[in-house]
Amino acid sequence: MRHVATIASRELRSLFVSPVAYVVLTLWAVLGAFFFLSSLVQFQEILVRLQQFQMFDRLREMNLNDELVAPFLGTMWILLIFAIPAVTMGLFTAEKTNRTEELLLTSPITIWEIVLGKYLAACAFVSLMAALVAFFPGLLFVYGDPEPGKTAAGLLALLLVSLCYAAIGAFASSITRNQVIAFFVGLVILLVFLVLSVVAELGGAQGLFSGGGWAADLLRWLATAEHFQRLTEGLVETRDLVYFAVMTGIFLLLTKAAVESVRWR
Amino acid sequence: MIEARDLSKRYGDLLAVDRVSFTVERGEVVGFLGPNGAGKTTTMRMLTGFLPPSDGTAVIAGADIFGEPLAARRAVGYLPETPPLYPEMDVQGFLRFVARLHDVPRRELKEAVERALGRCGLLEVRRRVIGALSRGYRQRVGVAQAIVHAPPVLILDEPTVGLDPIQIREIRQLIADLASPRDGEPAHTVILSTHILPEVEAICKRVILIHRGRKVLDQPLATLTAGGARLEEVFARETARDVEHPGGAAEPADA
User: Fold this and answer.
1) Kind of pairing, strands B206-211 and B214-220?
2) DSSP assignment letter at B17
3) I need a surface site. Which of A1, B178, B190, B195 has the fewest CB within 10 A?
4) CB atoms within 10 A of CB A5
5) 10 Å Cβ neighbour count for A265?
6) Alpha carbon of B97: minimum distance to chain A alpha carbons (Å)
């Protein structure tokens, strides 16, 4: 398993040599700042309105976590759907265009070591992205008093989603030799997981899923939304952690199979 | 050092390599000859563990490629037809990476990289980015990554293709040095594929001719060229002879 670190550090260095890493990080920071500011402005506007209309009950209920941090993290989650495939699209496609796949597969290392090494590099990068996002709610602690636990749970949600999506992006990269295709395949898979909960709701309402609604339940479970929201509400539950672990595991397994398939074609 | 036993590779209906067997002793330099599409690359890929044989097996430095795949791969240095290089890495960083992948111990790492740089004449470009190197230098980096972990077996797939005459001579000299080193370093066993006949005459001691996936000839070079026969004639004679073969054979256009 010591090869994992070798692969991961090389991958990470290559990532930071490529312009993609800097473009993604810059856009991520700029958009993060923009959406944080707009959430902040919106929050203040609601406060002003509530005062104007003298809705003091409602005003007392207003808090930074539910009205500012949670919507902000929700926006960043949507942005992740576009950002992560851009980070991971080169993980395996570059090995094919450089012909270095042949070097890796003829080295005395296992395919798991290759897959885990690359996944770890992607994890390090997306963790950096999550850390950048953490800066903004962090600012609130200087000027206000959000709940630390709830804020931490929200940031944990963003990190877990990032790590899980990185595995999906890695899989997209492993099934093609073209970066652009890898990006779009990753994007499409992530969009599917985004709309699944909507599909489940609509389907349930239309009565499309008969038989006790287990199909709707499955779709809802597969979709990211519910798990993400529960965490941003401050509920850290085992079932949601299991969801992220299972999804990550499944896509890493698929990635391993895709890398290995070169041998059996 | 290398023992191939009935190696076969089937792609669907196509039999690309058909029961090829041979042995190569320690320190031998064997030329793997054959027209384009004869099955040379496929055979080499099976020896290096990149492709599993459909049938048969091979033993490399005492390790079976199925039984102990990691040990077998550790014993091999491999230069594919297109050298596997990361264009964004610098030369010594890349060699250090390859050495780590091949389990070179940490304290010997530096020495191993220095030796490979020195032997391949890469000392003055060690800090250059690979993508900025000329083709000849890139090929040398390809050779360097194959020898950095001092493997007993070297498998080189068309190491001089696309180089200019001076570079070709340099690479040939390098391969000859690797097979019979002067400074007490261990001799490499080399398998070298090519379809350039003078190359074989220049560096190989033995010739294995592959045609349509089958081994049609396996003899010391001296015997072949005894009596003034030229290798070219032997090659033409052997490949013209129609081998009975169902389905023909071809090298896949590099999957």
Assistant:
1) antiparallel
2) E
3) A1
4) 14
5) 8
6) 7
- Domain span at A113: 4-264
CB A154 within 8 A of CB A73: yes
In chain B, whose CA is at the least distance from the CA of A261?
Answer: B51
pLDDT at A18 over 70: yes
* DSSP H or E stretch at residue A23: helix A19-52
Number of domains chain A contains: 1
- The answer to whether A88 touches A169, Cβ cutoff 8 Å, is yes
Q: Is the dihedral of CA B246, B224, B171, B105 positive or negative?
A: positive
d(CA A44, CA A140): 13
More confident residue, B237 or B93: B93
Residue B251's pLDDT is what?
A: 45
Res. B248 pLDDT band, cuts 50 70 90: very low
B43 touches chain A (CB under 8 A): no
Q: Which residue of A has its CA nearest to B100?
A: A6
- ipTM value of the model? 0.88
Q: Which of A13, A102, A264 comes nearest B80 by C-beta?
A: A102
Res B77: pLDDT? 95
Which pLDDT belongs to residue A11?
96
Torsion sign across C-alpha atoms A202, A205, A209, A211? positive
Residue A155: both structure tokens together = 């940031």
Q: Which residues contact A213 (CB under 8 A, 6 or more apart)?
A: A204
Q: Going by DSSP bridges, is the β-strand pair B63-64/B55-60 parallel, antiparallel, or unpaired? A: antiparallel
Using a CB-CB cut-off of 8 Å, the residues of chain A touching B49 are 105-106
Tokens describing residue B231: 């290798």
- CA distance to partner chain B, nearest, from residue A8 (Å): 11
Chain B residues with CB-CB distance to A109 below 8 A: 70, 101
Helix (H) or strand (E) holding B14: strand B14-24
Q: Are B1 and B25 in contact (CB under 8 A)?
A: yes
Token pair of B69 as six digits: 């795949």
Tokens of A263: 């041998």
- Please tell me whether residue B125 adopts helix, strand or coil conformation: helix
Q: How close, in Å, is residue B143 to chain A by CA atoms?
A: 12
- Closest to A102 (Cα-Cα) out of B212, B127, B47, B135: B47
B85 CB within 8 Å of a chain A CB: yes
Pairing label, strands B55-60, B14-24: unpaired
- Which letter does DSSP use for residue B103 in this model? T
CB-based burial label for A107 (10 Å; 0-12, 13-18, 19+)? buried
Distance between CA A243 and CA B83 in Å, rounded? 42
